[in-house]
Each structure stands twice: as C-alpha cells, then as structure tokens.
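step: validate -> pass
step: tokenize input -> pass
step: predict -> running
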Amino acid sequence: MENNVLKFKTSINCGNCIKAVTPFLDQVNGIQSWEVDTNNPDKILSVTSEGATHDEVIAAVKQAGFDVDPV
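step: predict -> pass
step: emit ->
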C-alpha cells in the first residue's frame, strides 16, 4: 500500500500539547509517522499514513482534547 500524507489544521501549539496527543495518535493503526508544525499559524499536523484514514486521525486528536480540521 502506498504511503499517503494527510494534513490537518489543529490547536496543537506547544511541546506539552504534542506530548498530550502522542498516545492517542500512537494508537491509530496505519500511521507511519506524524509531526506538528507549531511554527505555522495553523499548527499543521502532517501524518504519513499507510492505511489510517482522515476520520481515524481526527477522532484521535479530538479524543486528546484538541481541535482538528482536514486541510
């Protein structure tokens, strides 16, 4: 399966926020890697996916208590 890069606008804006969301994103099957550009005004979450869907990533980020919208 081909790797997909999914992008989201989030409210994840600092290192502590990244620590808070990590266990939720780590539980999503099919995520190869992810990172948040906290320097971007939209706090862009980029997820390299090998099967994870937009909906699964959105659910994980919301469960961690953050706002998230697909870009």
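step: describe -> Residues 34 and 47 are 4 Å apart (CA to CA).
step: cleanup -> pass
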